[in-house]
């Protein structure tokens, strides 16, 4: 996979992550008016999710964990639209679930982007990813303007974009327990080996299917 294609995939995930930041981080009026209780609950959720992330980083594949956390974050935002305000407890559970997976995604994303980027380009591409994230944060706040067209449109946008971005995670490399790539050539060699491995698995599945059917 060319380096610029991989960069575009990571840009999309960074953009999607921070585009949903408005709902997950800023729009906390769902929690009520008790500021001290709100901060305590948010702190408990963040500490718990980031502690669990340490286990995830050591034992679960990067693509699976980052795609699942991004998918759940977007899904929680979408589900909140259909939950009536009278069901306050259920809305709180969904909000904290999305907030927890958002916190986990931010931690995994930082590690994953560093593992995917060669050493010679790591600082440069980290800056590019941060720029994309900052632009997404600005646009997520501007998305509130769309409320005059449809009251739930900002929530739909903040939920759909992370869900769509999970598709791009499939095309990235798996980096669990692999050494960091020093140069672009090292990364290209790794891509070629993983492509051969994937083609070999697909070939085995097709061969077994023919043996069973014929």
What does this structure look like?
There is one protein chain. This protein is mainly alpha-helical. The chain has a single domain, classed as MFS general substrate transporter like domains (Growth Hormone, Chain: A, Up-down Bundle), CATH 1.20.1250.20. The protein has 8 helices and no strands. The two termini are about 35 Å apart. The model has no long low-confidence stretch (mean pLDDT about 75).
CATH superfamily: MFS general substrate transporter like domains
Oligomer: single chain
- Our Rg estimate from Cα atoms comes to 20 Å
Find the count of extended strands (DSSP E, 2+ residues).
0
Which series of helices and strands comes N to C? Answer: HHHHHHHH
Termini separation: 36 Å
Derived structural class: mainly alpha
CATH third-tier fold name: Growth Hormone, Chain: A
**Structural domains: how many:** 1
Short description:
The chain is mainly alpha-helical and 214 residues long. The chain has helices at residues 3-19, 21-26, 35-59, 62-82, 88-116, 122-142, 153-169, 184-213.
